[in-house]
Structures are given as C-alpha cells and as structure tokens.
Specification:
Chain A: Found in a complex with CSE1L/XPO2, Ran and KPNA2. Binds with high affinity to importin-alpha only in the presence of RanGTP. The complex is dissociated by the combined action of RanBP1 and RanGAP1. Interacts with CFTR. The complex is a heterodimer of chains A (963) and B (505). Chain A is built from 50 helices and no strands. Chain A has 963 residues and is mostly helical. The radius of gyration of chain B is 29 Å and the shape is elongated. The chains are: A mainly alpha (963), B mainly alpha (505).
Amino acid sequence: MELSDANLQTLTEYLKKTLDPDPAIRRPAEKFLESVEGNQNYPLLLLTLLEKSQDNVIKVCASVTFKNYIKRNWRIVEDEPNKICEADRVAIKANIVHLMLSSPEQMQKQLSDAISIIGREDFPQKWPDLLTEMVNRFQSGDFHVINGVLRTAHSLFKRYRHEFKSNELWTEIKLVLDAFALPLTNLFKATIELCSTHANDASALRILFSSLILISKLFYSLNFQDLPEFFEDNMETWMNNFHTLLTLDNKLLQTDDEEEAGLLELLKSQICDNAALYAQKYDEEFQRYLPRFVTAIWNLLVTTGQEVKYDLLVSNAIQFLASVCERPHYKNLFEDQNTLTSICEKVIVPNMEFRAADEEAFEDNSEEYIRRDLEGSDIDTRRRAACDLVRGLCKFFEGPVTGIFSGYVNSMLQEYAKNPSVNWKHKDAAIYLVTSLASKAQTQKHGITQANELVNLTEFFVNHILPDLKSANVNEFPVLKADGIKYIMIFRNQVPKEHLLVSIPLLINHLQAESIVVHTYAAHALERLFTMKGPNNATLFTAAEIAPFVEILLTNLFKALTLPGSSENEYIMKAIMRSFSLLQEAIIPYIPTLITQLTQKLLAVSKNPSKPHFNHYMFEAICLSIRITCKANPAAVVSFEEALFLVFTEILQNDVQVMSLLLETHKSDIPSSYMALFPHLLQPVLWERTGNIPALVRLLQAFLERGSNTIASAAADKIPGLLGVFQKLIASKANDHQGFYLLNSIIEHMPPESVDQYRKQIFILLFQRLQNSKTTKFIKSFLVFINLYCIKYGALALQEIFDGIQPKMFGMVLEKIIIPEIQKVSGNVEKKICAVGITKLLTECPPMMDTEYTKLWTPLLQSLIGLFELPEDDTIPDEEHFIDIEDTPGYQTAFSQLAFAGKKEHDPVGHMVNNPKIHLAQSLHKLSTACPGRVPSMVSTSLNADALQYLQGYLQAASVTLL
Amino acid sequence: MPTLEAPEERLRKFKYRGKDASMRRQQRMVVSLELRKAKKDEQALKRRNITDLSPNPSSEKLAKAVSLTLDEIVSRVNGTDPHLCFQATQAARKMLSQERNPALKLIVEAGLVPRLVEFLKSSLYPSLQFEAAWALTNIASGPSELTQAVVEGGAVQPLIELLSSPDVAVCEQAVWALGNIAGDSPELRDIVISSNAVPHLLALVSSTVSIPFLRNITWTLSNLCRYKNPYPCAKVVKQMLPVLFYLLQHHDTEILSDTCWALSYLTDGCNERIGQVVGTGVLPRLVELMKSSELSILTPSLRTVGNIVTGTDQQTQVAIDAGMLSVLPQLLSHPRSSIQKEAAWALSNVAAGPCQQIQQLITHGMLPPLVALLKNGEFKVQKEAVWTVANFTTGGTVDQLIQLVQSGVLEPLVNLLSVQDPKIVLIILDVISCILQAAEKLFKKEKLCLLLEELGGIDKIEALQLHENRQIGQTALNIIESHFFEVNDFAVERGAHISWWADQQ
C-alpha cells in the first residue's frame, strides 16, 4: 500500500462506510479494512488521514480505527508473525506524540490511548525517546499540550499502582524517575503559581486544575512502589503545596451540579489519597507533615456539604482520618476532648444521616439498597466511612467516644419521640450510631476485641427496637422497621434467647410488609435466627419452640413471594428452605400445599432462570420436602413424581440433582418415564455448562446403576452418545475425573456385550489423552479405571486389550504407569479397587507367569504391598500446581451442591472382597497350588525384606502358605 | 547496599509451599535497584580523619604547621628538601581535613598522589610518612574515582608495608587508609586482600594495642569482609574469623559494633558462608549482644543472627539453641521501628523452618508480639510480620495454625487487606485461603468464615475481586467461590472443541 492520494481516497470512502447504519454497507467495509490492515503503510495512511483530512468525521473515525488497530496488532506474540512491519512501527513512534498533542481533544484521547498501548509493549527499551519528548513539552507553556502529555504519562505509569515489584518494573520506574520527577516537580510549582496569577480567570483555572489533578495522580503512581529518593528530598515542596491546595477554595471552580464531582473535589480527593499513601507506607518520613494534613482534612470535612458530588471526597477524607487515628503514635492528635467532640459532632453524625438519596434507594432501588446495607458492598459510602472512623476512634478513646455518642443518641431519640412522623430520621441515625458503636462487641464473643460494655444492647433492644416492631401497622416508618429487624439480625448473638423468641412472631408478621426491604430483612432475620447454634451444636431454636408459628410462618413466607418485586427473592426462598430444615416432620401436614406452590414457582422461574441463588434454595427446599416426607412414608415418592415430573421434563438443565435423588430412591429398574428422558441428557448443549457437569454425571450414573439392562436392550443406539459424553469429559483437565466416573459406571453396570464393540476405542482415547497431557489427577483416575476393568472383565482381558492396541503395550503400562504411580492413588475405595485389580493381575493372568512380562511380577507385587503399607504419595509435579487441586477425584462424585441431596459412598468391590490383604494372600496361595514352587522363589529372590515381612504377615493372617 | 526486599524470590518460595522446605527461607538478596535513599543506620563505608588535634603531638612540635596555597604545596612537594616536603604535605593534609568542603578533588587533580605515595616509603621520616598516609586516607575517603586514584597511584603496597612500622601513629594511619580503600568496592577490597594485607592486619591485634587503634583495625577488617558479588575469598575469611571471634569478646562499643558488622557481611550469603561463621561458635555471644542497649551493637548483631537463620535448618537451630528466640520478643517491641523490622525479618525465617522450629517460636511467646506488630507496626514492619505469618502457615501443622488463629492474627491481617501493596495483599489472601483449608479439614470452616465475616474480611475480599492486579482478583474470587459461596454461578466453558464420538464414526 503506497502512501498515495488514491489510497487515502479509498480509505476515506471505506471509513465513511463503516459509519453507515445499514449493516449491508457497514459490514463489508469493516471486512475490507481488516483485510488490508496487514499491509505496510496502512497505519501511516490512517495517521495521515487523521491529521490532514478535511472532514472532521473522518478524522475522528481514523483515530478510533487507528487505536483499535494498535490494540489488536501492536503486541508481538511469540511464535506468531509480527503483524506490523518494523518501518511502520518506527514511523508511528516518531510521529504519534506530536500528532496526539496537536490534535483536538476528541482525537487526542484516542491517540493517547494508542500511545499507552504501544508504551506498554515498547517503553522503555524500544521507545527510549518517549520520555524526553514528553518532558520537553512541559516547557511549551501550552496547557492543552501539557495536559495531553500528563494524560499519556498517567496512562503509562498507572500500572505502577498494582503490579508486583520486579527488577524489570523497578528499572523502568527508576528510568522514569530520573527523567520525569524533576520536570514534574517544576511543572507542579509553576502550575500552582499560574493558578494565583489567573485566580480570576475561570477558564484558565479549569485547565490549570485539570493539570494539577493529573500531576497529583502521577505523584501517586510514582510514589506507589516505594518512596523514591527524589520525592523524599522534595517532600517539603510537594507536601506544602498539597496542603495549600487542600485548604484552597475558589468560587470560580465551584459547580452547580449536585451529583457530578467538580475539579476542586477531584483534586482534593486525590490529595487525600496521596496523603493516605504516605501516611500508610512512609510513616517515618511523613510524620512531621501528618498533623497538618489531619487538621486540613478535618476542616475540609467540617465545611463540605451533603451533596452527592462530595461523596468520594468525603469518604476518602474520612478514611484518611480513620486510618490515622488508630495508630498509637498519632493518638495525641485526637485525644483532646474538644477535638473528639468536634469530630463526632461535625464529621461522624452528619455523615450518618439518612439522606434523600438513601431514601430514594430504599424505595425505588431496594435490591441495590439491600446489597449495600446487608452485604456490605457499601465500601465507598459516607455512612460506611463514618462507621470505620467510629471504630478507629474507639480503639483508643472508647470511653469518651461512647460517652459523646450516648448523649447524641439520647437527644436524637428525644427528638423522634416529640414527633415521630417528622423526626423518624433522627431515630434512624440513633440506631445506626448504636450499631456502629457496638458492632465491635460482635467480635468480642470470639475473644478478639474487648467489649464495649458501655453500650447496653439488650436494653436498647427492649426500649427502642421492640416497640417499633410491635406496632400494629407493619407498613409504618418502613426505614425504622428495617433498622429494627437489622438490629436483631446483627446482634442476634448478644440479645438473650428469650428476647429473640419474642421477636420471632414479630418478624413473621413483617414478612407481610409492603416494603421490599422490610419483608426481605424479616425473611433474612428469620433465616439467620434458625441457623443459630445452641449448646451441643443443635440449633438454638428447636422445632418445638417454633411449632406454634408453623402455619403462619409458612403462609407468610410463601405470601411474601407474591409481593411486588419479590417473586424471586432469594432471602425469602432461603428462609423457606431453612424453615423446612429446622421444622422437619412438622411440615408434613402442609406438604401438599407447599409442593404445589414450589412446583408452580419452579415452572415459573424455569422459563427464564435469572437468579441462581433463588433457584438453588428452591431446589434445596424441594429436596428437603422429599427427604422429610419419604423418610416418614417411602411410598410418597410416587406423589412427588406426579407433582414434579411434568415440570422437570421441561427444565432439564436445573433439575438433574433432584432427579438423581428420585431415581436413586427406586429400588428396582428405571420407570419408563425416566427412560424417555435419557436421550435428552446426552444433548451436547447440556454439557457445555461446566456447572452442569457434576450433576449431569451423577444423573447418568444413576441411570446406569438402576437401568443398565433397560439401556442395553431398549436404548443401545444411545451408547455411542454416552461414550461421547465420556470423550468430551476426559479431554478436559478440569473434568476428566467426571469422565472417569461415567466410564466406571458404564464398566461396572452395563452388560459386557453391549459395550464390547467400543472397548478398544475407549482405551485408545485414554492413551491419546495420556500422551497429550498427563496429569497426576488423570493418572490416578486411569489407574482406578484399569483395575476396575480388570476386576470386571478379568486380568487376561486387560492384558489382551492393551496388547491388541500395540504389541508389548501391557508391559509398558505395568512398568511405566502401574508400578511407579500406584502409590499416588488416594481414597479407601479407590485403593481397594486397585489392590483387588492388581491381585488379579498377579494371580489370574497367565502371561505374567510365563512370558517376558514375568520379570515385572515381583515389582508389581512389591508396589502392591507398598500401596498397602506406605503412606500415600501426594507429591504433585511443580507444573501441575496451577491445576485446581480441589478437583482431585474420588471414585464417587464428590459433588453435592445441593447439600440435602447428597449421595452415599459406593464400593463396587465391597461384595467380593472384604480385606484386600487377606484376599491377596489367598489368591497367591491359589496360584502357588497351580504351579508349585514358582511363587515362593519369585517372592524370595527379588522382593525387598520389608515387603517380604509384610507379605508373610498377610499369609499368616489368612492362615495359608505358599507352596 | 544490602536490603531486606526480595519479594519476587520470596513469593516464588512461598508459592511452592511445602514442596521444598529449604526453598522457603528468604535469602537477603542484593537488589541492585533501590528507589529509596540509602539507609541511615548502616555502617560507614569510608571515613575521613578530621581530628583537629594531631594524634602525634611530636610531629606538631617538631615543625609548626604552615599555611600554604595549593601551588606552593605542589612546588614544595616536588622538591627534595624533606622539611619542605613535610611542611607541604602537612598543609595538604590540613586542607583535606577541613570539616567543610575539603579540597579532595583539587589535590588529586594537582597530581599530588604519586608524591604522597613516595613519601609513604620515606622510612627515615616517620612524621612525613604519617602526614602522607593521613592525606591519602582522606583522599581515599572521597568518591570512588578519588579512591581509585589513590590505588592507581600505587599506595596499597607501601601502606601495607607501613603496617609493620615501628611508629604506632604511622601504622594506625595506614590501617585507616587501607580501610577506606577496601570500603570502596569489591574490586578495590580484593586488591588490598591480594596484596596480602590481611595477615599483617591480624598481626596487629593484641591485648596491648590501644583501644582507638584496635577500633581502626576492626573497622578496616570489617571493610575487608564487606561486599558480595564477589565475596571476599573463603580462605581469607577463614584467616579473619578467629580474630573476629576474639574481638567479639571485647567490651568497647565501637569494636563490638564493627565486629558485628563484619560478621553480618560474612553471613549475608549462601549457606556455606553462613556455615563458616556459625562454625566458630560465635552464636551465643551474638545473641548476648542482641540484648545490648547500644543501637550500634544491637543493629549489626541482630542483622547477623537474622542472616544466619536464612541458612539451613541446622544453622537456624544453632541460633535457636543459642537463645535467639528468648531475645526476639523484646526486639519485636523495641521502640525503633528499624529494629522491629529486622527482628520480624529474622522471625519470618525461623517460621520458614520445619514445624519443630515453628513450635519453638510459639513456645517462646513470639505470637503476641507478632500480632502486636501486625496491628500497630509501621508498614515496613507489618510487611515483615505478614511474611512471618505466611511462612508460618506454609510450614505449620494444623495445631500450630489453630494457635496462630487463636492468637488473634486474623484481625490485623484482614485490616491489612486494604494496604496499598499488591504483593502483601496477595500473600494475605494466600494465608487466609490456607487457614480456611486447614479449618475445612477440622470441620471448623463455618466458624472461621463467621469470624472472617465479623472482622469485615468478606467485604474486603469481595472488593478485591475487582482489583486491577489480575492475580489478586483471581485469588480473591477463588476464596469467595470455594469458601463463601453456597452456590457457584454457572460458568460456561469456552472454546472447548467438542468432537462427538458419534460424529467420528
């Protein structure tokens, strides 16, 4: 591609087409551009266009296309072709900074992004001039240019804030510091001077403050990894100026916007971060500046308003104070009673107030409100910051702070009492204050922090929480109701049981509240109370204690699911599940209604499953109701099937675990209704979700266990599909053990003739996987499988199938896999399978006695004795450490996501062999009677002494001798 | 400059937990890169002699000092009159001894070094030798290129010969000059060593020598032990060790300090080097010195013991047997944060040992001060304390982990999750994950999760899932998914090519 006018023209046309709303025009143009982007000069053509095109739209389009091109192609990936030729790379780097700086803002941003992408790859080694080029622009005096440089620098350096220390990283930082730190400092000073000369020029100030924000951000990045010598030497300059800026105000920079933070707020917020960084990491050096910052930040807080636009600044500033006040050597900055009072009064209390924005969220965005309030995702909120400050101050000033706040709490409660409907927010603040003051006591029960005995939680509960919950109107003052319920939830371990018991019917009553927050909190509180443990690890509340409320509890819980906004409320569903679990048989009378309601819910959500937690608890609840009912009356399973089956066939994806449970409950063969499902279970689409795999494998296992004969006779054409599932699973390092579970079930349960024709291919697949990626987990599963095969089909069959794939293969497997790796097998059942399998190989496989395989006989025996006697070899090669070790397989699916649908362990050799050591002794004895003299000689010539001793022990225990 | 920072190396060791115990100890690595200012409490590399009073009053009496210009000095030094030479040398020495802005560079540029070296050899005039040695001492105390000029001027050999001078002042000044040269760099140190200075220096150590002189000798010896890449050769170290052992029994603060520094350099390396020092039986005395109220003794003795416990388990055991663990608690709560940091670092390496050593750490009551440091220490100290906990959890038995948790370690660890240091955050996440796994084995996970929740740990870990550092985000996610989530979201496996059995046929 030449850098010609014709090409520029063509490119312009195609770029224009990429903006066309009609995909028939847009798509081909995009395709074309992609097809030519590999050509030399393509990026230069784009740069030419964005510089020289007459059409502004084309300029912007070219800049975006250029940035995306760089993003896709600049990185040189090892073993892949270099996608941009060297000459283009050099030309781009030579021109881009200049181009970026001379472009209007819209394009500047794109080019700045492109520079940081390039910089990430090439800087500093392959782009040594970049820094000098940037630094030189500082002198230009043109703040449009300077801000462009600063922005680019920020995008290049911000990674210093989150990357791990390494020689490479620090080399780069050192280089940057050498070239950048001094010019940046000078620029900082000059910019501040300009701010005072332009103090009356709003537009100039805005540009200058944008620079100051960027400079402060760069300061943060450059000082993040460690305190650089340069900045230590120049701390005076930076900190004095930061301090001045913190205290600065200029009417011209104030904004009318209530939501969006203005330049002043952004700058001060960043300065708070910078000061916090120094206070946290470079305390020794920063110590002498710190008191001034504490004062400045505190003053800042006192003078900052309630508007949302100040939220970030305020929460940063409070967090700064919170982190400083709990350090022993800064204690003195806070200990004055007036200071404390002032902080409590002017910083903490105002920021704990329930604001208009909170009220809006409570009513209109309750899900978000609950998430923030209940699940603690309120990290950046003012309330949270104020709470952290209370805790920080309590570390040294618990008494005084509690005293100050008690006064506040009382006066706020009095205000509320005067006129509840107007002053309810005062009570909210009072409850919040008590909660944050006392929540320290929560950890106290674990003996970690000291008790704040100054707060009497029970008294407050009785006097101020219970009355609200007892009021007849559950919809009055919903925020206070939510506060009260939350109080029970939080202090459930502190409030005595008798008081909690009193609150249970009240909570049940509040399940009917219209406010989503209130009924959700009520459900959640009940659920939490029902999980509490009393003595002897039993639940604190017994079924008998809750019995009087069973009917109303269940009714209200299900009714709550019909309230607007709560049709898939996971807290309510969880409370339902927990109630079942606690009440057990007490729910049986209600089962018909319950199961109808649950299945209706199931049917409804299955059309559009969107709340995984909700669904999970729903399945738990269904499992529980089956368990509870069928324990009392096994025949009831039929009625569940009637109720559930119709639904289940529709929603295969979610129900598999419940189905397994149902299927396993059948003692004999599979009902035909289940068989109709079987083909659907082999659908590839089901297996694409990793999360489905354990449950689906378990269901297929249940089919094989209960219905292998039916499958063999009526669904033989489905066997390839079954093996296809196996094939997919063993191809994945994460799921191969699931594949083996399935394969083992096939081997164990399917009639041999039905899988005959596939056997060899199964082994070939396993060998392919062994060659491609051999992991410890795979080996372990493989060993269990071949031994199970040996038990099921005989030792000779195993030898034949190996040698049928390739001559002498059997010997290789023995020598390279079984003998050296058998020690790694874990799990009692797994070990037993291997022991019995190997015993068979030793004693029931003629080729082991009289071919070249004979030399492996004693080593195999030795390894078997090792399996019995030596500790398990749990070493894992280093390179496998990144495979999730959690996945270590068991013979049975360890999977039990639904805790109440758990599967029992299964021992496929249990009926044949009780003690595998005795079994070995007996089998050896049998072998020795068949060929007298050979076994003792093989044993005595090359078995090591320890092993021999163990073996003699087995023989003695079995009361047999070798002939 | 040695530094405590070697996180890359440490993390690598940490990651392969339990796989190779010997890998877990943190060697004090030389990181050539430092963003920080040089440390302030380290031993002086070079020292200028700016004593106002001449240590040799006789020479002062013999000739009254004359004040001369540099030109006059140059011309007189190049003359043949010994007296004028002496006067000029003394004047030069005085210029070099000025407290402020000594004209080191000017004197070298004036070409005086070769003449000064000549004067070292004029054994007939000890006072001239003395002044010349002093002048060269001060030149060598300057920046590297000036030290280099002294060596290139041929000063080393004549200085070593002066070690046998009958004139004590001359001898002492020569010791000093050699110390400055050796302190410059491993290259110059090796020039001094290969010129056979060590036996002569060692011969000077005796019970009759004055304390100031002995201080000088000790300091010079310590400089001969300084630097790695390369280390001083093992043979020379072997010669020096008995003398260092002897000096370590002294009662003079400076001598003890410099001896300890020497030992700290010698132990700042591989296990063989550490073994050489441990083999001299020096540890009980070192541990005793760790109790010193003198910071100048405490710092290097602690550093040395800290270095030793980076060695093998056996070497560490010798330090433990010498009682280091009974001294460490008081050092962990020392008023100086630099001492706390160094003590915590030493502790972290004991914690990297086998569980028996971890047990001794517990028995000696190390957990409460450790938790106190995690809570209230300066950040650099907290970092070392976090490493200690990390090593502890890696090598500790389940019982020991329980004790660790019971000591209240989780609260400060959780608080430190908001620290602005990605590596520390990652390590804490790993520690939490490790403790959770242990709790799982004991069926105590629920209780631990509750505790973590109450400490605000879950909030913090959840927030860390969004950390810009991918490894941190992933680790946090794993913890939440495997320990705090009752239901995993369905994760769709992407890009797996499915080739169905049925399709193949």
